[in-house]
Design goal:
Layout lengths: L9 E9 L7 E7 L8 H8 L3 E5 L6 E7 L4 E2 L3 H13 L6 E4 L2 E8 L2 E7 L7 E4 L3 H5 L11 E8 L4 E8 L4 E4 L3 H11 L3 E5 L3 E7 L4 E10 L3 E2 L1
Parallel strand pairs: 2-3, 4-6, 9-10, 11-13
Antiparallel strand pairs: 1-2, 1-15, 1-16, 3-4, 4-5, 6-7, 7-8, 8-15, 10-11, 11-12, 13-14, 14-15
């Protein structure tokens, strides 16, 4: 396989789970599959350094296939890549209703500026959950405190309103700290069996909806960032 440096492909970048002003959000690298046929996808993701990079096939009949990579591993499913890619495809004039990822088909919808995907919690990576009674303590945590594994720390901002403060550390995936983690939000929603309004990282915003049949909807706002050429 070729190296990332040899291809000269343009990688689109979007930020997923921004606030209402378009701030914060988790960067996502998006490569068109036809542009990186001779590139090692895992090496590409490592070079880019985003928490996830996706390789997206050309859509057909409102459906397409996609693969997801962290800097160190390929994932069968992840939240911010599916939300981000669905929004990006719509902005390219190719809206899809289904994204096929290795874990299974991900339904896509959009309501009032929020892009939604639907997935099962068992598709998500395994996280160790840490609940904090004092959400201010969450802001003091250091990624160095989590040298291995994948950890989602959380606490209630207001339990009656289902608002939650979170951070995520996943050195096992090559991610010291993730600004916004859709898969962890899905897993926490299934764990609590209730819909949530989540603030993660510096101020990213994620929305979830729990369904009693085991599916979870994950939503967020997305904005375009600057593309890069590799």
């Amino acid at each position: 396989m070729g190296t990332p440096e040899s291809d000269g492909a343009q990688i689109e970048v979007v930020r997923v789970f921004t606030d209402t002003a378009g701030r914060y959000g988790n960067p996502l690298g998006i490569a068109r599959a036809e542009d990186v046929t001779d590139v090692d996808h895992q090496a590409l993701a490592a070079k880019l350094g985003y928490s996830e990079t996706v390789v997206v096939d050309a859509p057909a009949e409102h459906r397409t296939k996609m693969r997801i990579y962290t800097p160190s591993v390929e994932l069968p499913f992840a939240g911010h890549p599916t939300v981000g890619a669905a929004w990006w495809l719509m902005m390219q004039g190719h809206p899809v209703t289904v994204l096929d990822v290795p874990a299974g088909p991900v339904d896509v919808s959009r309501t009032d500026g929020v892009t939604w995907v639907r997935a099962r919690s068992e598709w998500t990576p395994k996280f160790t959950f840490h609940e904090f009674a004092d959400i201010e303590e969450i802001t003091t945590l250091d990624p160095a405190d989590f040298p291995e594994g994948a950890h989602y720390v959380w606490g209630w901002i207001d339990e009656t309103r289902s608002t939650v403060r979170t951070r995520m550390f996943a050195p096992a995936m090559g991610i010291a700290e993730d600004e916004a983690t859709g898969a962890a939000a899905i897993a926490l929603t299934a764990r609590l069996r209730r819909s949530l309004y989540i603030t993660q990282g510096e101020g990213s915003q994620l929305f979830t909806e729990w369904d009693s049949d085991g599916w979870v909807r994950l939503g967020g706002r997305v904005v375009a960032d600057h593309p890069v050429v590799i």
